[in-house]
Write a sequence for this structure.
């Protein structure tokens, strides 16, 4: 949530900070951050669902 809020409200500051290391166009910068947020969300989902499924399968055996 913090990443999203900083991306929305302080996008230029983030681009300036990252611009010191990488030369990115605006669409590339947006795509990288959007993909990063998606991967993070999927990772959190998997880290919660997989243990739940494992416990469920052990319980039903």
């Amino acid at each position: 949530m913090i990443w999203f809020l900083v991306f929305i409200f302080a996008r230029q500051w983030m681009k300036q900070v990252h611009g010191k290391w990488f030369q990115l166009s605006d669409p590339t910068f947006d795509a990288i951050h959007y993909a990063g947020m998606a991967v993070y969300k999927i990772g959190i989902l998997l880290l919660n669902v997989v243990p739940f499924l494992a416990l469920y399968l052990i319980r039903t055996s």
Q: What stands out?
A: The chain has a mean pLDDT of 89.
